[in-house]
Amino acid sequence: MTDVLRRGRASLAFSFFAQGATFALLVTRIPAIQDRYGVSDALLPVFLAAVPILAGVGSVTTEQLVKRVRPSLLLRCAQPVVLLALLGVGAGEHLVELGIALAAFGLAVGGLDASMNMLGVSLQRSYGRSIMLSFHAAFSLGGIVGASLAWAGAHWHLALWVSYLPVVAVLLPAALIGSRWYVDGGSSAAVAEQEEERAQSRGIVFKLLLPLCLVMTFAYIGDSTVSNWSAKYLKDVLGSSEQLSTVPYNVYMVTTLLGRSLGDWGVRRFGAVAVVRLGALVAALGFAVVAVSPGAWVGMLGFTLVGLGLCVLVPQTFAAAGRLFPNASDAAVARLNIFNYVGFLIGSPLVGALGDAWSYRWAMLVPMLLVLVTLVYARSFAPQPDRYGGGHERPRTADVGRGSNGL
Question: One Pfam match, by short name (predicted)?
Answer without folding.
Answer: MFS_1
